[in-house]
Design goal:
- This protein folds into two domains: 56 residues, lambda repressor-like DNA-binding domains (434 Repressor (Amino-terminal Domain), Orthogonal Bundle); 57 residues, no CATH class.
- Helix content is 71%, strand content 0%.
- The chain contains eleven helices and no strands.
């Protein structure tokens, strides 16, 4: 019965996917906070949609408890493998061409590659277009 109910929950936003994943596991926000190592207020803010920019660190903590396939959209899945994905792009296009495509300095690309910074969503959209062409 619980599975039937949970299958009807919306999943358009990260907040909705997080609520659904938590409901499917059957844990409270407080329990999820303890199990993931995040604060209850962080869980609450994520589920309320107050936080749009989810860091890889937070995402890794959440998927240590919840179902990755429910929580992650394409962008978040890309972020989980950012180093490998950026390395593949550099190999395919070269750093200079990739810099031009993404409209950024090559040093930013190297920082994304070593995960010094998380790839911004607008740059992910440009990358996604490369695969669609």
């Amino acid at each position: 019965m619980n599975e039937l109910f949970n299958s009807d929950l919306p999943t358009n936003t990260f907040a909705e996917r997080l609520k659904k994943a938590r409901a499917m596991v059957g844990v409270s926000q407080e329990s999820l906070a303890k199990l993931s190592g995040l604060s209850r207020s962080t869980i609450n803010e994520l589920e309320a949609g107050y936080r749009d920019n989810i860091t890889r660190e937070t995402l890794l903590k959440l998927i240590s408890v919840l179902e990755k396939d429910i929580i992650c959209d394409d962008y978040l899945s890309y972020i989980l493998n950012q180093e490998k994905n950026i390395d593949l792009l550099i190999t395919t296009y070269g750093i200079e061409k990739l810099s031009a495509i993404l409209k950024c300095h090559h040093s930013s690309i190297y920082r994304w590659k070593v995960f010094k910074y998380q790839l911004p969503k607008d740059k992910y959209i440009l990358i996604k277009k490369l695969y669609q062409d």
